[in-house]
């Protein structure tokens, strides 16, 4: 069982930056990632990172503006977001895989980007 707790969301002006954190309990030698869901839209993958951090993936919408990292000693996943746009406004969810499926989810943290 894995429990995930996100933090770091908030209100920021367009062009600004935010860093989201996700602290995990339980097994953490797994792929972890971030998803987001904007009002009226489906949840979408932002990116994922492997246990060793050698593997990363970013969605085209955030590529070049976001950086995933993790500190396994602290059991924490990070999402650094720069040059934020109003369309980045969403609830951001931390997730972890089990047997290749995104099975564990955090409660979500709101990110609002004002224009």
What would you note in describing this structure?
This protein is an all-beta fold and 115 residues long. 0% of the residues lie in helices and 57% in strands. The protein has strands spanning 2-7, 10-13, 18-26, 32-37, 44-49, 56-58, 66-71, 76-81, 90-98, 101-105, 109-114. The strands form 2 sheets. Strands 2, 4, 5, 6, 9, 10 and 11 form a 7-stranded mixed sheet that branches. It has a 4-stranded antiparallel sheet with strand order 1-3-8-7, with no helix packed on it. The radius of gyration is 13 Å and the shape is globular. The model has no long low-confidence stretch (mean pLDDT 95).
For this entry, give a set of tags:
mainly beta; 7-stranded mixed β-sheet; single chain; 115 residues; 4-stranded antiparallel β-sheet
Summarize the structure.
This protein is mostly beta strands and 115 residues long. The chain contains no helices and eleven strands. The strands form two sheets. Strands 2, 4, 5, 6, 9, 10 and 11 form a seven-stranded mixed β-sheet that branches. The chain has a four-stranded antiparallel β-sheet with strand order 1-3-8-7, with no helix packed on it.
What multimeric state do the chains show?
single chain
**Global Rg:** 13 Å
Question: How would the global form be characterised?
Answer: globular
Content-based structural category? mainly beta
Largest beta-sheet characterization: 7 strands, mixed
Structure summary, number of beta strands: 11
Roughly what percent helix? under 10%
Instruction: Kindly estimate the percentage of residues that lie in beta strands according to DSSP.
Output: over 45%
* Unreliable residue stretches: none
Q: How far apart lie the N and C ends?
A: 40 Å
Q: Number of helical runs?
A: 0
Mean pLDDT: 95
H/E topology pattern:
EEEEEEEEEEE
């Amino acid at each position: 069982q894995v429990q995930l707790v996100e933090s770091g969301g908030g209100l920021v002006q367009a062009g600004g930056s935010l860093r989201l954190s996700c602290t995990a309990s339980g097994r953490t030698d797994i792929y972890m990632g971030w998803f987001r869901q904007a009002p009226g839209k489906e949840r979408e993958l932002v990116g994922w990172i492997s246990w060793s951090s050698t593997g990363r993936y970013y969605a085209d919408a955030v590529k070049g503006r976001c950086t995933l990292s993790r500190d396994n000693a602290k059991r924490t996943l990070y999402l650094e977001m720069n040059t934020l746009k109003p369309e980045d406004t969403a609830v951001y969810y931390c997730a972890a895989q089990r047997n290749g499926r995104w099975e564990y989810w955090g409660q979500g943290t709101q990110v609002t980007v004002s224009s």
